[in-house]
Amino acid sequence: LEEDILIERSAGGDSGAFRVLVERYQREIFNYFIRSTGSLDDAEDLTQQCFINLYRSLGRYRKKASLRTFIYRIAANLAISFSRKRKSPLSLDLLVEGGYDMATRYPSDLPEEKLHARELQRAYLRSLENLPAEWRTIIELRVGKELSYKEIADIMDRSVPSVESILFRAREKLSVDMAPFLEDQDDKKNY
Amino acid sequence: MDCSDFRRLTGRMLDGAVNRKEAEELGLHVASCEDCREAFARLEGLTNLHAGLPEIGLPGRLTDRIMDRVAELDVERTGWLWKILVPAAAAVFVLLGIQIGTQITDSLLPESEVNHAEVTGLEYLDDHPPDSFGRIMGLAARGGEDE
Questions:
Q1: What pTM value is reported for the model?
Q2: DSSP state letter for A38
Q3: A65, A104, A110, B39 — which has fewest CB within 10 A?
Q4: Residues in A touching B56 (Cβ below 8 Å)
Q5: Contact B66/A164, CB-based, under 8 Å?
């Protein structure tokens, strides 16, 4: 069914139509929350809350933005609010212990290269942890979810230049934090 | 284009958001500046690293958990209506019951032959002991005269 029809029916209380929307978006939202919270349990709870909030607010949804943008707006608010309230610092390392299988998308089958890719990804996740929650969200929306600057600006209630500026600073910081690992990678390649 | 212009546009280039003219200028600069070339390669590597982070499958029953909460929400939405309607309906039934009961009783009982005594509002005074509140009030009503 067309998304507009599903939205209209869901807003009218048709839970079958809403279920189709949930099934369409829940996986990417769940993975967004995993990278925002560093916890599989919290990601699950927040995904549930995100769709509950969506169901409550579908009556107010106007087609100014896509439904995906609308859902990410809810998700980003939840993630940022969650990270402000959390007592312990974000630890994406916990994901690995919790069964987050690193390097599954790394193309090489060579054990050494897989191991190195895992190390690199862990280092990258640790660098992400050190970013402010809003920066991390913007990086994830742009690089992870490939949303446009305009969509991200709508989601974050910011201007497009402000989003670009945060992306620039976030990338610079990640680049500095990751420099030792990337240099190490270059050395290994050269060797 | 100098190195600061290049740095400013690097992010947009990675995001595919530069126009053709900007892309050409960036290409010319990166070909001639080793520092910018390395910086760009590092940022490109990070972008690929992020895009290559694994996604994991959904936990079992997540959809059902969400839909269970949605069903609870629907009950909550309509619950307030029932909270008003049920007591209101009960009150109407009670009032109707009283009305019907009274009519039935009146139709079954013979007309009363009791002669209602004329009540002046002072007769009860005799039932009250001296110095009781009722007697004092009664006396006050009579203007202080006892029987």
A1: 0.70
A2: S
A3: A110
A4: 31, 34, 99-101
A5: no
